[in-house]
# Entry
Amino acid sequence: MGRICGPGEDTAFRDSNERTKKMAAKENHDVTRRRVLATAGLSAGGLLAFAQSGVAQQRTKRAEERAEKAQEKAKETEKDQARVSAPEDLMREHAVLHRLLLIYERIAARQSRGEEWPAKTLSESARLIQRFVEEYHQKLEEDYVFPAFEKAGRDTDLVAVLRKQHDAATALTRSILKRTPVSPRKRPM
Ligand SMILES: [Fe+2]
# Structure
């Protein structure tokens, strides 16, 4: 059984009780406030991280797009550089023929001096001329270039000479291949 309060003690008890309640309420409020702030902090951090990852993804995507465009441009440039006009193409093929004719000249010079000469090299050169020059290059000229000049009535005398040169070259190739005792190679292409 509790002690009966003396005079003034009841008021003091009530005051103390009120203070205790207020302190508890304040503590509760502080705890709630801290939780709210912590939650808000976490949410803000999450949002920031999310936003940052979004920005990073956009940057990566843009970088990939730039790299892709650069690659496409490089490919186009490469194609442009590789692309040559028809006359340039024919001139380059003539350069191949000129190199082969240098081999003919060196062998002919050795033959005229009575020196040994490489029959296999001569045979291989003749086969290359037959495959590349006669069956491909000359054929293009005879099928497309010469008829265009003849149709236009331009340089027809020159075209006639070139046709005769083609025929003579073909006969020479056949003669060389017939006389060089080297077994034929497999088709290079
Ligand atoms: Fe030619």
The helical segments are 9-82, 86-112, 119-152, 156-179.
